[in-house]
Design brief:
With 228 residues, the chain is mainly alpha-helical. The protein is built from nine helices and no strands. The longest helix is centred in the first third of the chain and has 29 residues. It starts with a helix and ends with a helix.
Length: 228
């Protein structure tokens, strides 16, 4: 019978090796794409800043306030957008299939999902604190307060939307036929956050961009890795 300590040690060594491989590949992609990524970042910043000027009116036009179904679906999708729901289900599915099929690619996909969500999520939450933008329900019209810890002033960017687009980008790069439903879900999440009166359109746009921006280099690195 294998020594549990040795098994754990080997598992940690393998996990560290795969993590380094994924981050090394992602960093190589970032270096190779630095000019288009910088252009995309600048254009996204311009688009988000411009959209912020019309956020209050746009949100008022988008939200459905006289239909119970819209409110219910908005709340349901918002709840499902938490990490412990859709993302956890996707992770467990990839991991279980990877173990059952003895597929290193699927196991790596599960690991890449965790890494992508961690990178995109932690940086998005750091922006939450730094911008301190008031959420729509506060009635403060999206005012920027600077550093703010309270959730009511953590509107930009939308972390739910960011995570949904992180999930969708990983799925789309690895399995292109699934891109349409994956991004359909991500867009529905963005709508839900607007409908639930938690974010403005600029927050959703920023979250969507950031999810794709953080995940694409990692997902492409994963796709290029060979099974050993």
């Amino acid at each position: 019978m294998a020594n549990p300590a040795n098994v754990a040690k080997e598992a940690c060594r393998s996990l560290g090796k795969e993590t380094r491989g994924l981050f090394t590949g992602a960093w190589a992609n970032c270096r190779a794409w630095k000019k288009p990524m910088l252009v995309a970042l600048v254009l996204a910043a311009i688009a988000v800043t411009a959209l912020m000027q019309f956020d209050v009116r746009l949100l008022s036009a988008i939200r459905v306030t006289d239909a119970l179904d819209a409110a219910v679906w908005g709340k349901f999708l918002s709840i499902m957008g938490r990490t412990e729901h859709v993302t956890l289900f996707l992770f467990l599915t990839l991991l279980a299939l990877g173990i059952a099929k003895k597929s290193l690619r699927l196991k790596r996909a599960a690991l890449a999902l965790v890494l992508a969500v961690a990178v995109a999520g932690l940086s998005a939450n750091a922006m939450h604190l730094g911008f301190g933008r008031a959420r729509p329900f506060t009635g403060e019209d999206g005012a920027l307060h600077g550093f703010a810890v309270k959730s009511r002033h953590n509107s930009f960017p939308s972390a739910h939307t960011c995570e949904a687009f992180t999930d969708a980008t990983l799925v789309a790069v690895l399995w292109p036929p699934a891109a349409l439903p994956a991004y359909g879900y991500a867009c529905a999440m963005g709508w839900a956050r607007l409908q639930d009166n938690q974010h403005y359109p600029a927050d959703v746009l920023g979250g969507a961009f950031w999810g794709v921006f953080c995940t694409l280099p990692l997902a492409v690195a994963l796709r290029r890795m060979r099974e050993e």
